[in-house]
Amino acid sequence: MAATLRTPARLALAASLALALSGCGINSIPTAEENVKAKWGDVENQYQRRADLIPNLVNTVKGFATQEREVLEAVTKARASASQVTVDPTKLSDPAQMAAFEQAQGQLGSALGRLLVTVEKYPELKSNENFLQLQSQLEGTENRIAVARRDYNQSVQTYNTEIRTFPSIIAAKVIYGAQPIAPFKATTANAETAPTVNF
Predict the structure, then answer these.
(1) Which residues make Cβ contacts (< 8 Å) with residue 63, sequence separation at least 6?
(2) Residues 55, 58, 60, 66: is their CA dihedral positive or negative?
(3) For 52-78, what is each residue's pLDDT tens digit?
(4) Confidence of residue 13 (pLDDT cuts 50, 70, 90)
(5) What is the Cα–Cα distance from 52 to 54, expressed in whole angstroms?
(6) Which ranges constitute the DSSP H helices of 85-128?
(7) What is the pLDDT of residue 195?
(8) Rounded-to-integer distance, Cα 181 and Cα 40, Å
């Protein structure tokens, strides 16, 4: 009789332990971490799209802006540099790697901005259909990058909140050794100030 009483008690104990563990982040922490990695993949995808468009843009501008070689070389160099700096999804909690990636992408964005300002000197280029299509795709890509970075930061916020709140903090520290993941930050000192455009 005592043995049969112990079995339901053991089952109840096992069920209550399973319920307690499910509420302390055993499943939610890996889910949140995988979501962050997926969003990071989206960010990298959009930056790759931009890098793929740049050679076409540079070649289109090159025919018109032959004396603007310095700007074109800066864009090509910045693209090469940005393509070499990557962040392993397992190292997203390393702020130094994130800062290096952001800096490389910021330099590329700045070089592209100078290239587009250079285009203002060549009105016949602005009416070129190929250039207009490339410019439109590049603008669309910049918007996609902004959305991907926003989505990444939201998933980082969810993950970082998950690993720092009770009861998930128990699993985060004891089981996973989870570390906060670094979000994207503004890459320029005056990012909060909109640039002035004069015509």
Answers:
(1) none
(2) negative
(3) 988 888 888 877 766 677 888 888 888
(4) low
(5) 6
(6) 95-119, 123-126
(7) 43
(8) 11
- How far apart are alpha carbons 76 and 34 in whole angstroms? 34
Q: How many residues does the chain have?
A: 199
Q: How is residue 85 annotated by DSSP?
A: -
- Decide: 145 and 43 in contact? Cβ < 8 Å: yes
CB–CB of 57/127 below 8 Å?
Answer: no
From the list 23, 28, 19, 20, the residue with the least C-alpha distance to 178 is: 28
Tokens in use for 87? 């962040």
pLDDT for res 125: 72
Tell me the HSE value of 112 on the side-chain side, using a 13 A CA sphere: 21
- What is the DSSP code (8-state) at residue 195? P
